[in-house]
Amino acid sequence: MWDDLPSLELLRTFEIVARHQSFTGAASELHITQAAVSHQIRTLEEFLGYRLFIRKERPISLTPEGQVLLPQVLSGLQGIKAALDQLQEEATAETLVVRVGPMFGANWLAQRIGGFYRLHPEVSLQLKITLIDTLPDFVREKLDVAVVWGDGHWEDVVVERLLPLSYTPVCSPDLLRAEQPIHSPEDLKNYPLLHGYSYDEWKNWLKRAGKPYLPCRRGPVIDDFNVVMNSAIDGQGVALCGLEMVRKHLEAGRLVQLFETTITSEEAYHLVYPEAALEREVVKVFRDWLLSMIPNS
């Protein structure tokens, strides 16, 4: 199929001579003699059946045939080099595949992952976001590690507790009305409540605040904490959110914390991985970095 094409070596020499407009300059770049360069160009011209250079001029110049051939040779050599560079990069890069849930990924990890990139630019990190926050099948999903929400009682994997959440009422400052300020839990009756998955968290928080008798079975129940949080930011109601997940919104003034009282979740985010995973240095590097980001870890 390729028998009617000259060798890559001859085409490369042609490109270099054309770029230098000189056999001497090409010989210097190739670290061969000028005679060897002339021989290669003559061999290429004999193979093609036409001349590529006008040799009587100084500097030498391309014939019309050479002018047609040069852009195609350049394009081909550049394409080959780009492919080889990509293969080399893939061969030397340390790839790490991490699975996280959308809440942890968007509201905690996203604010910190840039620090990992700066410390370890050699690592090719792939983040897989999943809506199913359960223990993954590491082999089937081709994962190295995962961050999973739960009680941490999982078998046949290494489990390291990362981050419980401290829940407290938050809302948009635009929601609050001057004529109906919130100074105590009783004042919540004037505002809609937002619930994640069930009414249980609000019931537990009111009990911790010493007001278990206050009604909380009102307002929408939303099966996605990201939606709960964004609904609060949009002024749709008061939400019970983990401070660790809304810190950036509190600092930016998009949300305000209404009370100091918090309840700490029994469940937590955990770093989970197969026992053999730490045999890879890249996994150990990520694990150590992630733990260093957790207070009191």
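[next item in queue]
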Amino acid sequence: MLWDGEMNRSDLVDFFGISPQQASADIQHYKERAPDNITYDRNGKCYIRSEAFSPILVSDRAEAYTDALLGLGTTTGHDGSNWIGSPPPYAVLPSPHRRISPAILRTVVQAICRGDMVEVDYQSMNRPAPTTRWLSPHALGYDGLRWHVRAYSHQHEMFRDYVVARIVKTGDRKASSIDPAADEAWHKTITVRIAPHEQLTDAQKTAIAWEYGMRDGVAEITVRASMVFYLLRMLRLDEDAERRSPKAQQIVLLNPEDMPRGSF
């Protein structure tokens, strides 16, 4: 009703798999809870959204609807929890499926939960073949495309990110003496401040500011320091940003001096 603007009893019957009698009862219950939300159109033989409509069951944020559409376009929207009855034609850009071994993921998760260190064979892109190393994992992170494990590398003597899918084998486990609280980059947050590109027209700047939910021409995104690199890459605020045209770049980073070393 919120987005489609109308419904009838058969819509509820088909969507929820209930009887016509139950659908009628549900509509009556809804009318009792929100008497000003819907009116009956005798010509169209359906209930239509009134001018005074105010949602009581779902959010009226646009993101709620587009997220539901996104769910329908992936595997997450077919578990019965999606409330869009008659979606418009839409398409969701597919992304390559990044495979993760369930057995390896279980080992990593158990090591995190139990405070263990684990021996892994890891395929780094800086090495021609997998190498064996000991990691003390303490968290998982998602960069929009891949899952990483945040772990202390006993080889490098520092906390680093490791792509879970590139752990090709796990071995022994034992108790770790590494305190996750020592991972400052994980626990520290950075505020990334962005604004419309200064060479855009005023109308273009207004459009970009609206799109990103900016206030006074600035949007602030708070992220863990260890994940700033991924955020800047996703926003295309990388080392090539200054070489792109204003129309292609669209936004700029206002506080590059606050970014951790190695973010670009």
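[queue empty]
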